[in-house]
Amino acid sequence: MSVLVLRLAAPLQAWGASARFVRRTTESAPTKSGVIGMLAAAQGLDRDDDAGLSRLAALRFGVRIDQPGTRVRDFQTAHHAVTGKSMPLSERFYLADAVFVAALEGEGAFLDELHTALRAPVHPLFLGRRSCPPALPVELATRDSSLLQALRDEPWQASGWYQRLRGKEHTVSLSVLREPVQGEEHGDILRDQPLSFAAAHRRHALRSVVSTTVEVPNPRAVAPRVPAAAHPVPRHEPFDAVEEETL
């Protein structure tokens, strides 16, 4: 199996799995439907192309939380463009300064196609919401590996300031949310398996999510400070200088 590895970093991200009506929440990590939607945009799929979507949705998905970010709330007001009447007040939630590594496992040739599409996307890419463009190139690499091994091997993608903030840790433990392998015990259930993005009948199915952790090196770890007692104290005898003068 091969794995396509992505870096999802932006000032703002929003990954809603159950957001409806005037309250649009965000999950703490990218959703599979959100990432699949981004890949569909890169390929230029129509919203009602359910056959093309099913090929993407069949990929096994996992995500590593490299920098969790901060949840922020945006309060919005609007008026109808024609009547001028006030629209319902709405709340929208975002993740600020977050960084994730997402991985999709599948057949190598198809993942190479997706990797190429991300480098020259047909439609603009965004991280969960149209107001959230990525700050850095999304595509990292394709690996000949399992999904979990790819998430374990990828270097830590957190910002430099965040890596320095955890500079006392030579290795950091990062949370991983992934789909289980066949025969593995299932974890949490999330309505996040895209079936159709068509505006008239947008549909999602349930999928299982297993939570684990991986250990990765911190490239900005600082060497531990040596206690003063561990340094040899140089000999100091003030009368040595006096004795040299009298000789």
From TrEMBL:
<protein>
    <submittedName>
        <fullName>Type I-E CRISPR-associated protein Cas5/CasD</fullName>
    </submittedName>
</protein>
<dbReference type="InterPro" id="IPR021124">
    <property type="entry name" value="CRISPR-assoc_prot_Cas5"/>
</dbReference>
<dbReference type="Pfam" id="PF09704">
    <property type="entry name" value="Cas_Cas5d"/>
</dbReference>
<dbReference type="InterPro" id="IPR013422">
    <property type="entry name" value="CRISPR-assoc_prot_Cas5_N"/>
</dbReference>
<keyword id="KW-0051">Antiviral defense</keyword>
<dbReference type="InterPro" id="IPR010147">
    <property type="entry name" value="CRISPR-assoc_prot_CasD"/>
</dbReference>
<feature type="region of interest" description="Disordered">
    <location>
        <begin position="225"/>
        <end position="247"/>
    </location>
</feature>
